[in-house]
Design a protein that fits this description.
- The protein is α+β, with helices and mostly antiparallel strands.
- Among the domains are: about 100-285 and about 310-325, Transferase(Phosphotransferase) domain 1 (Transferase(Phosphotransferase), domain 1), CATH 1.10.510; about 345-460, Alpha Horseshoe (Serine Threonine Protein Phosphatase 5, Tetratricopeptide repeat); about 480-535, Serine Threonine Protein Phosphatase 5, Tetratricopeptide repeat (Alpha Horseshoe); about 535-630, Tetratricopeptide repeat domain (Serine Threonine Protein Phosphatase 5, Tetratricopeptide repeat), CATH 1.25.40.
- Strands 1-2-3-4-6-5 form a 6-stranded antiparallel beta sheet, with helices on one face. A 3-stranded antiparallel beta sheet has the order 8-10-11, with helices on one face.
- α33 (about 800-820) runs parallel beside α35.
- The chain is globular and about 105 Å long.
- Keywords: ATP-binding, Kinase, Nucleotide-binding, Transferase.
- InterPro entries: Kinase-like_dom_sf, Prot_kinase_dom, Protein_kinase_ATP_BS, Ser/Thr_kinase_AS, TPR-like_helical_dom_sf, TPR_rpt.
- This is Protein kinase.
């Protein structure tokens, strides 16, 4: 391979125009260059012959590095620098790669960054290495210089240039690359070298684990774990014989992990980087303060839920290190300065630059999608971006925006797949949109989604582009569990940048509703519809205001207007059906609207929502066999992440029918199939049915009391960790309770003030009231239950959850009856009998019929 001098600015190397030198080392230089064919900036690594190596040794090293670079280039991941091109030109080997923005981890070593941030970095590094190992690569040079932390928080592991393939005999589960001969040269940076590297033994994935341990020790303590002050020989001896220096600044849990990772014998380390990463994910260094105290059994928080990140590693090739041969470290990771913050220019989403495409149809569809996002019509936007990406499959921004709007749909997998395509095409994205891609990674590429990390990245990104209205919106996504006061401040920021951003008007209204300011909320929603007549989300919330105000006639007016605006929108028809059912219209009239709604929902891909509405009508009219048949179809949809709600309705109906064993089997089957993403921070703990499933399985004899209690404690810890301590009581105790004993247990565990977290979605308030009322009712406290039972009955959305609504009406009637309020009790009983009067299998209906007869209630038509 030819030796040559450095390139100067402006020189060409094949299709690359050199702009500047980024770094150099013993095996070549790294340049910032322009790829003239694709019009993108790259880091161009040019490999040059080491003067101390023979021609044969150099040829072997260069060949190996290029071979491993090609293997690494086949991988892709949002947090990893991508390899664009690998080859030789005029006898000179080169590697063209993405430029990594940020700073090496070395800048944080021994610094005052929060422990939680350091742990997150180490966790991300471990996940990246785990993915490389699964793909058949061992890094062998894990060190702070090979880890870059971007301003947005993305962690990237660099320099797979000395990586080697795993030998299948060493790691049978790994994909085998061409293994390196045992007698080949030692590679790696001395201070981060594992004992087996020094002694020439066979290497496997646990070698990288040792390097990770050195990095972790140094990150927290600011010094290496082994003596490096007396030269190479002393360092080698220390690594082979000495115990690591004690860690004094790191949390105790981290010390234990690092100690095991630094074990001399690989067999004493963690079985894999995946196991180590899972241990890191369980750490809780800075637990969230609990807004509402829970009883001691429920309040203990010792761990977070484990993250199972969906990741594949795209590694990059760069310079090799030889033991003690270099006096200065190789600057092998091309790190570009982080861009400065953009000037404050008010930018609406429709003002952002359009992507470049030669396909007019794709551009028209993309424009339509962007306008639909601004108009809070995400369903319309999803179809538009889907058309755009199909018209031009290379349009990265269309794939990215489809992924963003599909996050709110039933099919999260479709969103994730679109994200992966966008990532592969990311070289065509602007700096702003690449940062947007990075910010979404924790939600769309981790299982369960890491909401907290996504929010942190968007906060950083919004600070970099302070005039960008869209980034302000995503800084607060997802909206549930945000405090209303915070949301109002957020909407002020958003609307100051774009006063026609319908989503921000909608969120403003939701915050006002949560604060009980309904008239102001109506005005905000009216403004939303005014600026965006097709704003489906604003119409949805406008309808929700009528539901929560128990204005079924008003709901009919709003939904008929909504249907006129968007006749093909299934959700508009479903809420029209709710208004008719709430007013007691004839079943045939309600059925006709339900059929229209479900047809349109299915046509739009909302299969689970259609089944839920069908189930609601059947259960709400006492046709329980049809309701059970519909409930059994939920699994056919094949989207386990959206089965939790419908499955809960199935279980609760079986309990209502006295079929305890069947309810337990359905619950147990779901628990066996559920995925980690169901347990993400996006679930509202107040109505999360997971503890109810464990309770149902326990009642059916499928779980012991100890197992049920253990699952409940684990679930409570997750909720508290996610900042929903108040909601935890509702989901863990109140929702599952069906007997007096369970109700008394729930009351014993009830916080002194069983209020809701401030940011709880306003439409859950009556669900929470129903749960409080139910628990007190079952425990025999009729006077205490009555206010909550009244509040829970004051809405007209009962078609969406008729079983719980009618059970609540039964309890309300009994509470009224015990107070001697016959007329009001009969009114509640008639509400049940008008819908379930002929349903002989219903426990509730039978008791209501008996009580109404004994009380002498007159039969009247209607609800």
């Amino acid at each position: 391979m030819a030796e040559s001098t450095r390139f100067s600015s402006g020189e060409t190397f094949g299709r690359y125009v050199v702009e500047s030198l980024l770094g150099e080392g013993g095996m070549g230089e790294v340049y910032r260059a322009l790829d003239t064919r694709l019009g993108r900036k790259v880091a161009l690594k040019v490999l040059r012959k080491d003067g101390d190596l023979s021609e044969d040794a150099w040829a072997h090293e260069a060949s190996r590095m290029l071979r491993e670079a090609r293997a690494a280039a086949a991988l892709s991941h949002a947090g990893i620098v991508a390899i664009y091109d690998v080859g030789e030109l005029d006898g000179t080997a080169f590697i063209a790669m993405e430029i990594a923005e940020g700073e090496p981890l070395r800048a944080l070593v021994g610094g005052d960054a929060a422990d939680a941030r350091k742990i997150q970095i180490l966790h991300d590094v471990a996940r990246a290495l785990a993915a490389a190992h699964q793909a058949g690569l061992v890094h062998r040079d894990v060190k702070p210089e090979n880890i870059v932390v971007s301003r947005a928080g993305t962690v990237k592991v660099l320099d797979f240039g000395i990586a080697r393939g795993l030998d299948r005999e060493t790691d049978p589960g790994a994909r085998t690359l061409e293994a390196e001969p045992a007698e080949s040269l030692f590679h790696g940076t001395p201070a981060y070298t594992a004992p087996e590297q020094l002694t020439g033994e066979a290497l496997d994935a646990r070698t990288d684990q040792f390097g990770w341990g050195v990095v972790a020790h140094e990150l927290f303590e600011g010094e290496l774990p082994f003596r490096a002050d007396k030269g190479p020989a002393a360092l080698m001896s220390s690594i082979l014989a000495d115990e690591p220096r004690p860690m004094n600044r790191a949390p105790e849990a981290i010390r234990a992990l690092v100690k095991r990772a630094l074990a001399k014998d690989p067999a004493d380390r963690f079985p894999s980087m995946t196991v180590l990463a899972d241990e890191l994910a369980l750490l809780s260094i800075e637990p969230e303060p609990e807004p509402t105290p829970l009883p001691p059994a429920a309040a203990r928080v010792s761990a977070t839920r484990a993250l199972a990140l969906v990741a594949v590693l795209a590694a990059l090739a760069a310079a090799a290190w030889f033991l003690f041969r270099r006096e200065k470290p190789v600057d092998s990771a091309p790190v570009a300065p982080t861009p400065s913050a953009a000037p404050l220019v008010r930018i609406a989403i429709t003002d952002l630059p359009l992507p470049t495409t030669d396909n007019p149809e794709a551009l028209v569809a993309y424009r339509e999608g962007v306008q639909a996002v601004r108009d809070a019509s995400w369903t319309t936007a999803r179809f538009a971006f889907d058309r755009a990406r199909k018209a031009d499959p290379s349009l990265a921004l269309a794939h990215l925006r489809y992924a963003m709007v599909a996050m709110d749909s039933e099919d999260l997998n479709a969103s994730r797949e679109a994200y992966r395509v966008a990532f592969l095409l990311r070289s065509s994205l602007s700096d702003r949109d690449r940062s947007l891609l990075d910010a979404l990674e924790p939600f769309l590429q981790r299982d369960p989604p890491d909401v907290a990390e996504m929010r942190r990245r968007f906060a950083d990104l919004s600070a970099r582009y302070p005039g960008d209205a869209e980034l302000v919106y995503w800084e607060f996504f997802p909206i549930p569990q945000r405090k209303p006061a915070d949301l109002l401040a957020f909407t002020e920021r958003c609307l100051a940048l774009d006063d026609r951003y319908a989503d921000c008007l909608q969120i403003q209204a939701r915050a006002l509703i949560a604060l009980g300011r309904h008239e102001e909320a109506r005005r905000a929603l009216d403004r939303c519809v005014e600026v965006a007549p097709t704003a489906g989300d604003c119409m949805f919330d406008r309808a929700a205001v009528e539901i929560m105000s128990n204005r079924c006639v008003g709901l009919e007016e709003v939904t008929r207007s909504w249907v006129a605006r968007e006749p093909d929108l299934g959700r508009a028809h479903s809420y029209l059906a709710c208004s008719l059912y709430g007013q007691g219209r004839e079943n045939a009239a309600v059925r006709a609207v339900v059929d229209t709604a479900t047809q349109k929902l299915r046509a739009s891909g909302f299969q689970v929502e259609a089944l839920t509405l069908d189930f609601g009508f059947a259960a709400g009219t006492g046709d329980f066999e049809s309701a059970l048949r519909i409930a059994r179809q939920t699994g056919v949809v094949g989207d386990i992440d959206h089965e939790a709600g419908p499955t809960a309705k199935h279980v609760f109906l079986l309990i209502e029918l006295g079929r305890t064993e069947d309810a337990g089997r359905v619950a147990q089957d779901f628990l066996a199939r559920q995925t980690a993403s169901l347990r993400s921070g996006t679930m509202d703990c107040t109505v999360d049915p997971e503890p109810s499933f464990y309770a149902a399985a326990h009642r059916a004899g499928l779980l012991s009391e100890a197992e049920r209690a253990s699952h409940r404690e684990s679930w409570i810890r997750r909720c508290v960790q996610e900042g929903d301590a108040a909601g935890a009581w509702y989901g863990a105790y109140a929702l599952p309770a069906t007997t007096p004993d369970e109700a008394r247990e729930a009351l014993a565990a009830m916080p002194s003030r069983p209020s809701l977290p401030e940011g709880l979605p306003y439409y859950r308030a009556r669900s929470a009231a129903a749960l409080r009322g139910k628990v007190r009712f079952l425990a025999g406290d009729m006077d205490g239950a009555l206010p909550d039972l009244v509040e829970a009955s004051s809405h007209c959305g009962m078609l969406l959850d008729p079983v719980h609504y009618l059970q609540n009406q039964h309890r309300l009637g009994v509470a009224r009856e015990t107070r001697g309020e016959k007329d009001l009790a009969c009114e509640a009983y008639r509400s049940v009998l008008s819908r379930w009067g002929a349903a002989k299998d219903s426990i509730t209906a039978r008791d209501v019929a008996r009580r109404a007869k004994a009380l002498g209630c007159e039969s009247r038509p209607g609800p």
